[in-house]
Amino acid sequence: MAELLLSGGTLIDGTGAGPRPNTSVLVAGDRIVAVGAEADAAAVTGGATVIDVSGLTVMPGLIDAHVHVTLGEPASNDELFHRREPAAAAFVAAHSARRILQAGVTSFLDVDGLYNIGPALRDAIACGAVEGPTMKAGTYALMTAVGGTAGRFIPDQGTAGYAEVVRDKDEMIRVVRRQVKDGSDVIKVHVTGSIPNRPGEIQVWTREEMKVVCDTAHDLGVTVGAHCRGDAATLDSILAGADIIWHASYMGEAALEAMVEHKVAVGPVFTFLANLNQYGPKAGATSSVRDVFRNEMEQTGAMLRRAYDAGVPLLCGSESGFSITPYGHWHAREMEVFVEHLGLTPLEAITCCTSTNAIALGQQGEVGTIEAGRRADILVLEGDPSLDVSILGDKSRFRHLLCRGRQVELAPVPERTPLPSERAAPWSAVSLTWELAHS
Ligand SMILES: [Zn+2]
Fold first, then answer.
1. How far is the CA of 391 from the centre of ligand 1 (A)?
2. What value does the mean pLDDT of the chain take?
């Protein structure tokens, strides 16, 4: 089997250990087979191809625990719910997967999305028909008719956009089973949702209903991720058996205690809000939502830090898939937020985005660290991310990327232009009143 030696780099292995200078990594096929002096020795006898990476950092490929690869970067719920056709969305998702890969992401969890494209894309990548990171995928997010973050775009029954409405416990069981048959690795539940005339998100599932979903999913060997913006929703989801809490916004003492007791993984997925808050105006975003991030961080950040200190796995997800979080640009951003707002060291944040994130994929011991026997997902870059984690967002620093042992072409994929009818096209930005016309 052809061997490849990454020779003499500084290794950040993803376990939380500090950088180790002059540490080679030997790859054979899709595996890391040796690290350090053992790698150098084996390469001499084995006749490996040698790549000199001295002066560069060698680390695990990034893992993104929260992506929506099928949404196609909508700028509004109107686009997301009314302007996405299955076949076109699938082709665009294949393009998006390559962009994610070139951002140094060698595997990701597609938490939910349109139609059954997620599992289909996962399988297309696995069989070599499409180039992309290794995927785990869900399909539609389960909602009650008042659920979701799209108000009245959520129908009373059936599917719309990324939503599938379940009306009673029998239907919850039926839909979970069908999603598993359709290839889902995970079930996503929107435990809180928004409706137009109420502020924030309200809990729209009971603990008993969540338990029905969790029990059915677990019986079939798949995990459950619960979207919770609210304290009681987080508590009820944990007690019902959810495996991952997404957001955990405004979590209180009881929910924190349950999270620590059950060691349920939590992914705040702050990147969307952080981007809106910091860079929104550059993208023409309205400023009314900018305070949301500050408020949510103040109330949630301290609790998440306590959870992290108590041993709760903290997952790193980017929410890539929207116009504020386009594919291939923001997969390292959550680490910056962890450093800035939760007080993690850059090295701790890197560990979240590599070995800890393997939990989201159910692939602990397979990916996320540079150790003999692990899959050869390796990023080589200029600079030391253990001093400044933000450099992981700068693709111009990347020198080599291995995904499943294969070298990835780092020349950027050409950007695409919008498909016909993909974008909402207003007749005007404001109403053309008589006064405006004559002003
Ligand atoms: Zn999401």
1. 24
2. 95
